[in-house]
Automatic annotation (TrEMBL):
Pfam families (alphabetical): Methyltransf_25 (PF13649)
Family in the record: Belongs to the class I-like SAM-binding methyltransferase superfamily. Cx-SAM synthase family.
EC numbers: 2.1.3.-
Higher taxonomy: Bacteria, Pseudomonadati, Pseudomonadota, Gammaproteobacteria, Oceanospirillales
Stored CDD domains: AdoMet_MTases
Protein source organism: Alcanivorax nanhaiticus
Protein name per UniProt: Carboxy-S-adenosyl-L-methionine synthase
Length: 243
């Protein structure tokens, strides 16, 4: 399965299907994510830097909603000397299948435990770092609190959660502006208005964003002691939460 250009929504669909991470999306995912999420390559690179800083002995590192394993690879590469096991989890069989191939080609099969499953239901081992890189937004809102609480409970003192999300703003004018700037970013990367519109329809009630305040409140309630916004571009943000 080779990387291809994302043209899933380039022609008009009589009925736009609900978005899912199926084989069609997996084939174009690297192109899709690069052209859709501002700063995505930098976020991946810095996840590796954060792993090198925060990985602790005798703990694992989690990539929850790992897709094709980009964050997994970054964490493993910069913790090679520490040797922390990396546990990468996704609920898409197509993603897991392709990630297995990519991680094998990168020589990471022994370092990485790749699991297919629902991250919001799994049991966690003691960890010093967990990554939710644009994952929480796809989990039903009513399941998010309990999930984050269980993840925090498994995170050792001084450990971290990296939470990257598309966010919404309380102020409607601000929300509209940031959304339009994101659409301008996508147009600059070659997406047409038709593609932007149809993708937005496909993601409706699938990707459910929250405000920064809602994320911060959940993280504090779960027991994270310090929360930092370390990346922001338009309506995309990444938080560093320290246990």
């Amino acid at each position: 399965m080779s990387d291809q250009q994302d043209n899933i929504y380039a022609t008009a669909h009589q009925q736009v299907a609900r978005f899912s991470f199926d084989e069609t999306v997996v084939r174009v995912f690297p192109d899709m994510i690069r052209r859709s999420v501002p700063g995505y390559p930098s976020i991946i690179d810095m996840i590796g830097v954060l792993a090198a800083r925060y990985a602790q002995p005798d703990t694992c590192l989690y990539d929850l909603g790992c897709s094709l394993g980009a964050a997994t690879t970054a964490m493993a590469a910069l913790t090679a000397e520490q040797g922390n096991p990396v546990v990468a989890v996704d609920n898409s069989p197509a993603m897991i299948h392709q990630a297995e191939t990519l991680l094998a080609h990168a020589g990471l099969s022994e370092r990485v435990r790749l699991l297919e499953g629902d991250v919001a239901e799994m049991d966690f081992e003691p960890c010093s770092m967990a990554v939710l890189n644009f994952t929480l937004q796809f989990i039903a809102p009513e399941r998010r609190d309990a999930f984050i609480e269980r993840l925090a409970a498994a995170t050792v003192p001084g450990g971290i959660l990296v939470l990257s999300e598309k966010i919404r703003f309380e102020d409607e004018a601000e929300n509209a502006l940031q959304t339009e700037l994101h659409h301008a970013f996508k147009r600059n990367n070659g997406y047409s208005d038709l593609e932007i519109s149809q993708k937005r329809t496909a993601l409706e009630n699938v990707l459910i964003p929250e405000t920064l305040a809602a994320h911060e409140a959940r993280l504090r309630k779960a027991g994270y002691q310090h929360i930092h916004v370390w990346f922001r571009c338009f309506n995309f943000m990444s938080l560093l939460a320290v246990r």
